[in-house]
Each structure stands twice: as C-alpha cells, then as structure tokens.
Amino acid sequence: MPQDPDTATDRPGVESPGLRGSNQSGMRAHNERMVLSLVRQQGALAKTDIARISGLSAQTVSVIMRSLEQDGLLLRGEPIRGRIGQPSVPMSLNPEGAFFLGLKIGRRSVDLTLIDFLGHTRAMRHRLYRYPTPDAVLAFLTEALPAVIAELPAALRGRVSGLGIAMPFQLWSWVEFIGAPQAEMDAWRTRDIQAEIAAVAAMPVYLQNDATAACGAELVFGTGEKPQNFLYFYFGSFIGGGLVLNGQLFVGRTGNAAGVGPMPVPGPDGQMRRLLTVASISTLSAAMDAAGQPSGHLWEDPDHWQVSAPLLNAWIAGVAEGLASATLS
Length: 329
What we know:
Layout: E1 8-9, H1 28-42, H2 47-54, H3 58-70, E2 74-76, E3 91-93, E4 99-105, E5 109-115, E6 121-128, H4 134-149, E7 160-167, H5 175-178, H6 182-185, H7 187-190, H8 193-201, E8 205-209, H9 210-221, E9 230-235, E10 239-245, E11 248-250, E12 264-266, E13 272-274, H10 281-290, H11 297-300, H12 309-328
Parallel strand pairs: 1-11, 4-7, 7-8
Antiparallel strand pairs: 2-3, 4-5, 5-6, 9-10, 10-11, 12-13
C-alpha cells in the first residue's frame, strides 16, 4: 500500500515522533502532508492550533490551509465565537477530497477496495481461488476495477489518486504450505506485478508487504490506543507482523522488518516449530478439514466463523502460546 511519508521509514528516528513543519522554501509539499496528518489524527483544527502544534508560522499555515481548501481536501467548519479576537474556524478533512484503491493479494483470495479520504470503504470486490497466480490477479482486477470506480459519482472519479498493492513477498516459496504447483508459483519470480497492474489501472501504483501495509493502516486509521513503539500481528492465511518505532512504520531494507512467521516457538509437544505453523488461519483450516468440518467460509465470510468449540479453543490456545513466546523472544 502507499506509504505515508509521515509514518513510514526504513530506519527508526532518533527525534521526537511529534509532527513538526518547516518554514524553509521548497518544503511546501512536506508541510501540506504534515497539516493533513495533524487534522487526520486530531480532528478538526483551526489554523492557530496547527501553528502551535507544528511550529509553523501563522502566515505559512494560512497559505497551506487556503490551498488545501481550494483543492477540496479540507472543509471549513462553523466559526467558533466567544473568545478574544477573531472567531476561530475549524478545518476538517473532506471525505470526498480524495479516494484510494487497495488491492490485497492473498494466498486464498484477492480483494479490491475503494476508500475515501477518511478511510471509509465505498466499494469492494472479492474473489476466492485455490492459490494466487499473476494471471488470476490481473483477470480479477481487469473486471473489478471499472465496476468499483463506477460506484462513485462521475464528478468524483477523477479524485481516485492511486492504487496500493498489499501482498505476501516471495509467494513462490510457500508452495508446500498452500498446495500450489511450483511451476505456476514461479511466475511470481519474473513477473513485475506492480508494472502490469499499473498498465491496467492507468494510475500510480504502490506495492508493500501485506502485514506491513496492515500495520501502517492501523497506525493511520486505528482508533485504539497506539503507543509509540509496538509490534503488530497480522492474521492471514499465515501469521505476519509489522513494527512501529518512535511512532513511525519501520519497514527495514526488505520491506518486511517484522516478518514473524519463521520465528521458532515451542509447540504443544514441546518441540520447536515455526510460528506460522501454529498461529495461522491455514492451520485452523487444515484442522477443520481433517475433522470433516467445512473450512471454506473462513475465507468467504471471515466475520462469521462456524467452528466446533474443541477445535477453535485448541487453535486459540496454540496461537496465544505462540504469540507470547514470539513476543518475549
């Protein structure tokens, strides 16, 4: 997925994670992103509040907010009166100021989602498959993309700003776990999926590891408590992870700094095994199949699992023990 320059980094910062602007020339784009990030994080803000928080001059903030309002990214609220001086005017993000597409390429399914500037889902398409191939993904996107964009009013379609791909890296190395033919999965080695999708979408396309992208989304849109440093666990077909240091998404040199799946953890028998073998949805799916329980709905309707209590409780216990061991190691 697209990385927010204010939240993503390849190394942890040593400064305070607070957002600070710059009054130097040539920094307008940075300052605009910083202002939008502040309004996203804290809600509607007046220019005096933004100047105080960011360290920018009141004149610089006025210019930036006027420009963002003209571009349709900010909405002007009702003036707040009753204080000394001129009434303050809170500015908030315009939900229809920009739209973004997200393509999640999973090991069992692919999803295309359209969100607005507040992160609310406006449209979505979903397709299951036995295993992912570049051709299957491109066929899905070719069909789903026009349908998703068509759900926006015609006047807003030009505000779709880009498409982010979230996918596991090195898919060809997971053949033994997903039961896919090696020859078909090897296509991921040589195909430039980002370039091929950009040719279909005709818009800027960004690519990021799926677990890292999920962690970044939690950092930007999450509503719970977010400490400055945390490890994020991502439950997909296989367990993944993201890492936040000093309030910024830490991706590392490989783009997958918190790839927790291969971490060794003790299994129920005391033998060491990889975390992905005990804390993944695919593990639960395999146990259900072995017990004669249908598991397809795990991928079709993830919000409504139908699993027998013994199987589910055993899986949850294994997941909890595995995550605890990985966290403390």
